[in-house]
Specification:
With 206 residues, the chain is of the alpha+beta class. It contains four helices and 13 strands. The chain has helices at 63-68, 127-131, 169-174, 192-205; strands spanning 8-18, 21-27, 39-42, 45-53, 56-61, 79-84, 103-113, 116-124, 141-144, 147-150, 152-157, 160-167, 185-190. Strand 4 (45-53) and strand 5 form a beta hairpin.
């Protein structure tokens, strides 16, 4: 489990394909402290460390993870947001993030607004997805590329859902939000508590 409070960014230094899997080798400031079998969130995707070498470490993404997330779009040299799993008894500074990305979203607007940054994203939305809790509510929580954020201006129109977030300068500079622009594909994980409630209501309705 994660909190959505990104620790740092990791740079992709090597990508290897093995059948339907991809192995990503990355470098980050706490790379030397990692151990095999440790869980790390990469752009919000929980991946297991399978190899370490100095400050480099390797994680593997399966076909399903590649299909649902933006990991398949990564190139060598790209930067991803990383967070180690929460420690029991620690503060939950963000919100409960599982590291199980629900789907991809696309940035449709990114702009600076007097010191802060405003982003708007669109994502696929269907009746079935809404019943599974794949939607946002105003002032609720959402994880975008693994960053815990407060929702503003949520909307659903036709087969598209929309969510906006505002980023303080620190978050903009310390995460890969500084590389996000209109057209960028990001990972989105909806609030787990909202998903439980939506699925319960769908069950009793049916």
């Amino acid at each position: 489990m994660f909190s959505g409070i990104v620790e740092t960014m990791a740079q992709v230094v090597k990508i290897e394909t093995e059948q339907t899997n991809k192995h990503f080798t990355l470098r980050n400031p706490f790379g030397e402290a990692l151990s095999i079998d440790q869980s790390i969130a990469h752009n919000g995707v929980c991946l297991t460390v399978v190899k370490t070498e100095g400050d480099l470490y390797t994680v593997t993404a399966m076909q399903e993870s590649l299909r649902l997330t933006n990991l398949d779009l990564l190139k060598e040299g790209d930067w991803v947001n990383v967070e180690r799993s929460m420690m029991m008894g620690g503060r939950l500074d963000g919100h409960i993030v599982q590291g199980h990305v629900d789907q991809k979203a696309r940035c449709i607007e990114a702009k600076e607004t007097d010191g802060s940054w405003y982003y708007r994203f669109e994502y696929e939305s269907t009746k079935e997805m809404i019943e599974r809790g794949y939607f946002c509510v105003d002032k609720g929580s959402v994880a975008i590329n693994g960053v815990s954020l407060t929702v503003c201006e949520p909307d659903i129109r036709g087969d598209k859902g929309y969510v906006s977030v505002c980023i303080i300068p620190y978050t903009h500079e310390e995460t890969n939000f500084k590389y996000i622009e209109a057209g960028t594909v990001v990972n989105i994980e909806f609030d787990i508590l909202g998903k439980y409630m939506a699925r319960y209501l769908a069950q009793i309705k049916n």
